[in-house]
Please model this.
Amino acid sequence: MRLGRVDVPGEHEARERTWAVVRAAFGEREPAPARPRRLLPAVALAVLAAAVAAAVTPPGRAVVDRVREALGVETAEQALFSLPAGGRLLVVSDSGAWLVSRDGSRRRLGDYRVAACSPFGRFVAAARERELAALEPDGEVRWTLARNGITDVAWGGTATDTRIAYLAGGTLRVVAGDGTGDHALGPADGFRWLPGARHRLAVIAGRRTTVVDADTGAVVAREPLLAPRSSHIRQAGGTSRIVVGRDVRFEGSGTFRDATPSPDGRWLAFVWPEVDQLVFVTASGRRELEATANLTNQFDAVDTPHLADWCPAAE
Model:
């Protein structure tokens, strides 16, 4: 362990030379054409070069840090000390579901792989492979329902009359907020709750979107194919952008994921996997930016965690 603190002759000069080469190579790269499934060839090569250097020399470790800083938000905090707006973040990692309060305190809710908040932040719907559960914010289980292959969940409705929609084995199902009345609506690839007092879902199946009554399954309307939930994200030529209307709020190299608005709509949060950061940017007006690094370590994960929801403060 002490060898890592020994000053090697010429180490500083080597570190500076190595970083200069990597920085120059990265800066001179030509923009790659849009390729849907391989967005980051130049970025991947730069990071790979830095990783090889890290494996063989102490100066290489510094190169890794500086490349990550160049690609990510340089002012990112090393931990998630606080949220820029009210409510709580719901984060899902390979260690389970976590709820983060505004002051940065974190609580692990359990070994769940998908999760969503109730409309007014009072409860959390969470699922593992064979179980759907309704939880208190402290992780206490209110009820459970045995179902196989749950891949998505969302909670909608009013303050006094809610429904949980979820995908299980490719079938869209709905259950009341108190765990009663579970029923199937039919095959689906995705879904979205529509605003309003009536329990209506936009259901995506193949190239068709239909609006259905969540209680009866009756088709209310047919619509063009909906965009995915993270509709604030655009990608082109290895660059991602957070766009609200026609206003580009943030852009960078790599893939932005899980764009989620704050309960008051003033901020957007998103995950930047390539640099292991969670980034917050204002949705309108003067641009403000906050970020936290080391996202994977903070949530005891191997893979980059997902931002599942930004829950309103419980009423």
Observations:
- Helices lie at 11-27, 41-56, 58-71, 295-298.
- The mean pLDDT is 79.
- The CA atoms of residues 80 and 292 lie 6 Å apart.
- The first strand starts at residue 88 and ends at 93.
